[in-house]
Amino acid sequence: MKLQFSIFTKLLIIQYLSILCVSQDFDFFYFVQQWPGSYCDTKQSCCYPKSGKPAADFGIHGLWPEYKDGSYPSNCDPDSVFEKSQISDLISDLRQNWPTLSCPSNDGTKFWTHEWVKHGTCAESELDQREYFEAALKLKEKANLLQALKNAGIKPDDGFYELESIIAAIKEATGFTPGIECNVDPEHNSQLYQIYMCVDTSASEFIQCPKQPRKKCASTVQFPRF
């Protein structure tokens, strides 16, 4: 009898912790977009998806729940698997706006699965799976980063641009200061890689970042062609 009670108690505790993890709050999202030219222009290189070379535009990397203290939740619900059928009508948009460049060449499902399982499950208190991916697509359209940079004369032409000019151009267009992440090409040039925008917990509005990501960039960075 004691053994049965002990097992039952443990099961209740596990269930409670599982519910607690799924429903945990977070403070904001990082909405992260990456420049494909910088992803590919490294020693690691890249592979185009099976659908072909993506457009020369920023692609979505992820929509990540974050805490103001700099930490973040991850893998919050092991029972919430990625179900492609839930977003079947979004697949074409995802291939265009959330493409994968990892090797070997694939159709993107592995990438989207990873993003949902690691990050999306931690936002289930606000968004179900379809809402999560749909929100990211809408945020990309709303930000329109490439156009914001082009309007300031900043183009993906292998040229070098002041980091502060890039930040100012995005702030001018969106109203908010972005976080910038750079990587390094084989010639050791610092290049524009990822742009972080902060978003409210409903994943609908850009906000001022409660905490900027700590990423290193040179004062002048290259914007490579793709």
* Class computed from helices, strands and strand pairing: alpha+beta
Shape: globular
Which CATH top level class fits?
Alpha Beta
Please state the CA-atom Rg, rounded to the nearest Å: 20 Å
Oligomer: single chain
Distance between the termini: 67 Å
Can I get a quick summary?
By secondary structure, this protein is α+β, with helices and mostly antiparallel strands. 35% of the residues lie in helices and 18% in strands. It has helices spanning 2-23, 36-40, 91-97, 109-118, 129-143, 145-151, 163-174; strands at residues 28-34, 59-66, 159-162, 179-184, 190-199, 206-207, 220-223.
Indicate the topology:
Blueprint: H1 2-23, E1 28-34, H2 36-40, E2 59-66, H3 91-97, H4 109-118, H5 129-143, H6 145-151, E3 159-162, H7 163-174, E4 179-184, E5 190-199, E6 206-207, E7 220-223
Antiparallel strand pairs: 1-2, 1-5, 3-7, 4-5, 5-6
Question: How would you describe the overall organization of this protein?
Answer:
The chain has 226 residues and is α+β, with helices and mostly antiparallel strands. The chain has one domain (28-223): Alpha-Beta Complex (Ribonuclease Rh, Chain A). Helices cover 35% and strands 18% of the residues. It contains seven helices and seven strands; from the N terminus they run H-E-H-E-H-H-H-H-E-H-E-E-E-E. The chain has helices at residues 2-23, 36-40, 91-97, 109-118, 129-143, 145-151, 163-174; strands at 28-34, 59-66, 159-162, 179-184, 190-199, 206-207, 220-223. The strands form two sheets. Strands 1, 2, 4, 5 and 6 form a five-stranded antiparallel sheet that branches. The protein has a two-stranded antiparallel sheet with strand order 3-7. Strand 4 (179-184) and strand 5 form a beta hairpin. Helix 6 crosses helix 7 (163-174). The model is unreliable at 11-23 (pLDDT under 50).
